[in-house]
Each structure stands twice: as C-alpha cells, then as structure tokens.
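Supplementary Note 3. Input sequence used for the single-chain structure prediction.
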Amino acid sequence: MIQPRILRGFAVFALLLAVGITFVARSARTESVYTVRDIAVDSSAVSAAAARSIALAGGQRTAFDRLMRRIVLSEDRVILPNLDDTMIAQVIDGYEIEKELVSPTRYRASLIVDFNKNQIRKLLRKRKIRFAETRSKDVLVVPVYDAGEGAVLWQEPEDWRAAWLARPANEGLVPFILPLGDVMDMGAVSAAEAQSPLREALVRLAQRYGADEIVVAVASLRVSDERVETGQGTEDGTENGTEEGTEDRGAEPTGQSAADETEPSVSRRVRGPVEGAILQLTVHRVGVAGEQSASELLRGAPAESKADLLSRAVGRVIAQVEGGWKQANILRFGRENKLRIIVPLAGLSDWVDMRRRLSELAVVLTVDLAALSRDQAEVLLHYLGETEQLMLGLEQSDLALNFEARGWVLQNASAGGFEEQGGKNL
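The predicted structure, written as discrete structure tokens, is reproduced below.
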C-alpha cells in the first residue's frame, strides 16, 4: 500500500490534486463524440426568419441522425425513437453557425451541433439500445484491386483506390486513412505481400503512419464475357449485344463463385453498368490484437456502374470494421467495476494531463485520488465493463496499463511509427 507523504513544500501541489484541477487548455482536449460538424442547411420560406427557423430545426434533426449512426449498433438503429423537433432540442447543449448566407426568403448555413452526453445516454439506456462512445485510433486502409490481370496495389488502374478517396468524410468512431502511395510505400509492401497477408510487411507500412491497425481490402471484380470490354462498343461507351447476369443466388459462401458458369475472359475491364458482375471482397485486419479475415460477394445491381459498385464495397468494409469496433466497446452500464492503479508523476503537469485523459474515457465513471507522493499518485478508477475493455480504451489515448510487482501501473505508451507522417484522411 502506498502511503501519502506530503511535505510542507508540497502542500500546494497536494491541495490542487485533491480538488481536481480543471484548468486545462481547450486546445488540448479532444473533440467530443457528441459534437457533429458540417451540417449544411438550406431552406426557403416567406421570410428570412421563417427560413432560418426551418433550417435550424432540420439541421438539428440531421445532426441527431448522424450521431445515432455514429454511436449506435447498426442492428439497434431500427428501434431508435422517432423524436420530434422539440424532443431533439432537449438533448442538445448548443450549436454554432458557420458560413451563414441570408436573403429575404432563403437561409443557408453550416452548423456544428453539441449534444448533451448524459441526456443521450439516458435516452438510449431507457430503450435498451446498445451504443459505444470510444473513438479508435487511425486505421490504415490498403486497397488491393484485381480486375482480372493480377492484383494491383500502387500502380494503375486505381479504380479501387479512387473509390476510397471519393468516399465522403467518415463520421463514425473509426477514422480511416489511406497511404500516400509514394516510393517508400511501394518499398514497404507489395500487392502480393498485402494479399498474403505478410504481417511483417504490413506492420512496417502501418508504423510509417503511426497506425496500430491496418486493413487490407482486396476487391476482385469478376464479370461474364458479355460484360467485358471488347473494343466493339458504340460511341456512347455502351457495348453491343446482350447484358446477361448470372442467376441471383443470394449471399454465397466464400469460395463458391456465382460466376463459375460464365468464366471471365482475359480482360475484365468493365464498361458501363455492371449488372450481374461479382465483386469478391476480402478484408484482412492486422493489428496489435492479432489478425482477422472475412470475405463476402457483392453482385452488380441493374444499371449500377463500376464506380457505384466499388463505392458500395467501400461502405461494406467501413461498416464491417466499425461494427466490430462498436461491439468491442459497447457501454455496459449494468456491469460496473473498480481498479486501483499507480500513476507515475514527474510533476504537477503530468497529473493534470493524466487526470484529463482518464476522465475523457467513455468507460470511466470516476477518477478518485486515493494517495499521493512526490513521484506517483494512487488512483481508484470506477469504470464500465471488464478490464480488457478499459485497457482497449486506454490504448486509444496512448496509455498503457501494465501489471507489475507493485500493482497496476498506468504509463504513456509510444505512438509507434518510424515517421511523424499522416496519410490521406477519408
């Protein structure tokens, strides 16, 4: 047991620790999960005031919908309550208006809406809706594309990579970044190594971007001979002849292609709609927690272009990764635990920073100071869920909880990576 030892010259420090210091610069805080940005509103009415009222109400509804998609499990969104404008306003702390344009009968603006965490939690818990609040660190996506002429990663054609770049900014709990695709990336991992997947090469690439997890998304497009570019297309880019697809069999298990009876030709570059085409989507996840793989088949819909099909596949990858993340970080309010930990200190600023970071964790309920000395603090954490979930949340804030001879010790974890270099945000 660590006994508090407060020397006379240390009294002020002890007092500040006891009351819990709150003078943290706003710029040091991470933005809340309950803040929704870039809500574009545009309404017209008989007057500017009326248009503004309509626009703000609509913007708040849009913000609420985006928040629910961000934190609620996809399978639980069907039981979300249908709130009217007044009820939505009651769970909002406030909003900011940006880029405001007003005319006599029209109102346009961009909103930032801050929701009240406690009110949202109360709303969802009352209806037993499962949700998560923990943000993941950046996840690096490596898009490998096979259009029938072999797997392509860094070279043309870049249809699959372009689909990832064209994806609207992700608003979920998992931020995705894309490698730059420069010479260093090419030297770090090849298409064959990514497909394997070769863990050493992928970890090397992930380290370059300071990422702890990497997702290799392999898209293999399979089309029948009737849908292949033959050089006999018309001037408007469509082919002559029929556009037959394969019989719809639903979701076939991996390894059983729905296009077996229509073998792809040597060149499988698609022109125009891809109805009946099969896109095999394989997702390899490599991270500190190990490796996982999953596959599924997507069928080209009537009048769907190749770009649309690939865009839909991007959405499937994101949904799969985010779904797994939410499942691992569901807030379990009926399961409260506590853990006594030791926090090494080099000074007052260390404790200010550590207390803030602990308090911002979604699973942490309270941070109680139990004892202190010049070089460490003993803290009692009250948290939701199991220790493994607490440790996962700590990792996202670059904190490591390790068990030593003196007990559980919390320390800063290195962010990792050979270079301080970011990828392209999606």
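The CA atoms of residues 257 and 278 lie 8 Å apart. Confidence is low (pLDDT under 50) at residues 1-29, 227-268, 415-426.
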